[in-house]
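Lecture 7 notes: from sequence to structure.

We start with a single chain of 169 residues. Read the sequence below before looking at the structure.
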Amino acid sequence: MLNMPHNPPKEGAKVLREGSPEPPRALTAVCEHDRACGRGFSCDRHFGLCVPLRGEGHYCRRDAQCVRGLSCMFGKCHRSVPNGREGARCKVDRDCGASMCCARHHGEQVCKRRLLHGESCYVPDGGLAFSINQICPCDEGLLCRKNSRPRERDFIPARASWTCQVPKV
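Now the structure, written as tokens:
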């Protein structure tokens, strides 16, 4: 499995120490929980050291490593998305707004919009691609159906020929 790039806390602490005669206690504190680190720091549980909170775009492993207003999504600190909106974290479909579902995106469950008429709706039977990135079903009143006539430029007909359609009566 690939490792996420990171700076071990000791290196991060060295950078912060430059120019200051004595490092703040939080940078050298051994910890098991965030409470042990004090304001502006979190406990890097992997290394057991207090490290400064991280800003937008910095690598993270959990929300508590990011400054207030940011969430750890896809391994980086991002601005938090309000609950129920597209891109917000969710556990079940009802956590999302109208015409949305809860589906995995890069392995995290987030609110995504349901597919519209004519959009590709092909879903593999399973496998890694399905587990990491999922799509929502077609919007209300539409069904995922195979097109009757293939398009000229379909390089992967099995996928490209499935679209959201109005059901035929």
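The radius of gyration is 22 Å. Keep this in mind for problem set 3.
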